[in-house]
C-alpha cells in the first residue's frame, strides 16, 4: 500500500462518503439505513485492517464475505413486501445522480493499477468501461428530470446498460482476484480490494450502485404497470358508459 498516494486514499474515502450520503438522501435520511451502512462499514474496515482479506489461499475465498452478505440482502429487499415498500419510497432522481461517483471510482482503480494492486483489465485502459456510466449520469439526470426531453423508457434502458457495465467489471474483479479460482491476470492479480480503505469498494460502493440500478428499474417498471392499469380502468369505464 506504500505505492498508493495519500491523495488517492483521500479521494476514495470522499467518494465512498458521497455514495453513502446520496443513497441516504434517496432514502429520505432513514436512520435505519444510516445505522446499517455504518455497522457494515465498521465490520469490513476492521477485517481489512487486521489482514483478514490478505490470506488469498483460503477456500472458500475470504473476499466473498465482502460480496455475499450485501447480495443476499439486496435479493431479500427485492422479494419481500417490506423491501419492496422501501424501494418504492426511494427518490429515483437521487438514485440516478448517485452514479456520478463512478468517475472518481474509476480514477481510483487506475491508480491502484499503477500501484500494481489490481490488473489493467479492471481499469478504463482495459475492459472496464464503467466510467461511461458516471459521465452519462448527469446528462441523463438533466434530460429526464430537469429538461424533460427524454422519457423514462430512456432512463430504463440507461439503467440496464449501466447495470451491464457494472456486472462486467465485478466479474472481472472476481475472476482476477488472487484466489485458487483465479482465471486470468496472474501477472498482476486483483489484491487491492483486500486493503483498507479500498475494501469498501466491493463491500459498500458496489452494493449501493447495484441496488440503485435495481431499485430504479423496479420503480420505472412498476410505474408503467400502474399507468397501464389506470388506462385499462378508464377504457372499461368508457365502454360501460357507452353501452
Structure, briefly:
By secondary structure, this protein is mainly α. The protein is about 70% helix and about 0% strand.
Can you put this structure into words, describing what you see?
By secondary structure, the chain is an all-alpha fold. It is built from nine helices and no strands. The chain has one domain. It is globular and about 45 Å long. The termini are far apart.
Secondary-structure blueprint of this entry?
Blueprint: H1 6-26, H2 31-49, H3 64-79, H4 81-89, H5 92-97, H6 102-114, H7 131-146, H8 152-175, H9 200-242
Characterize the biggest β-sheet. Answer: none
Helix and strand pattern:
HHHHHHHHH
Shape: globular
Integer tally of domains: 1
Can you give keywords for this protein?
243 residues, 69% helix, mainly alpha, disordered C terminus
Amino acid at each position: 500500500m506504500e505505492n498508493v498516494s495519500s491523495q488517492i486514499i483521500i479521494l476514495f474515502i470522499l467518494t465512498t462518503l458521497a455514495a453513502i450520503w446520496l443513497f441516504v438522501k434517496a432514502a429520505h435520511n432513514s436512520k435505519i439505513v444510516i445505522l446499517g451502512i455504518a455497522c457494515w462499514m465498521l465490520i469490513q474496515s476492521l477485517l481489512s485492517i487486521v489482514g483478514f482479506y490478505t490470506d488469498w489461499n483460503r477456500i472458500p475465498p475470504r473476499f466473498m464475505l465482502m460480496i455475499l452478505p450485501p447480495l443476499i440482502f439486496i435479493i431479500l429487499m427485492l422479494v419481500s413486501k417490506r423491501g419492496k415498500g422501501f424501494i418504492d419510497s426511494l427518490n429515483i432522481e437521487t438514485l440516478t445522480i448517485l452514479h456520478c461517483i463512478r468517475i472518481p471510482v474509476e480514477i481510483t482503480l487506475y491508480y491502484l493499477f499503477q500501484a500494481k494492486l489490481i490488473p489493467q483489465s479492471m481499469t478504463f485502459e482495459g475492459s472496464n468501461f464503467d466510467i461511461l456510466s458516471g459521465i452519462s449520469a448527469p446528462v441523463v439526470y438533466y434530460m429526464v428530470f430537469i429538461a424533460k426531453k427524454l422519457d423514462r423508457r430512456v432512463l430504463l434502458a440507461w439503467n440496464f446498460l449501466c447495470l451491464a457495465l457494472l456486472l462486467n467489471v465485478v466479474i472481472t474483479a472476481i475472476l482476477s482476484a488472487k484466489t485458487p479460482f483465479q482465471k486470468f491476470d496472474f501477472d498482476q492479480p486483483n489484491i487491492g480490494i483486500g486493503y483498507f480503505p479500498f475494501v469498501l469498494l466491493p463491500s459498500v460502493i458496489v452494493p449501493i450502485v447495484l441496488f440503485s440500478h435495481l431499485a430504479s428499474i423496479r420503480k420505472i417498471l412498476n410505474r408503467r404497470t400502474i399507468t397501464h392499469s389506470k388506462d385499462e380502468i378508464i377504457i372499461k369505464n368508457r365502454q360501460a358508459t357507452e353501452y
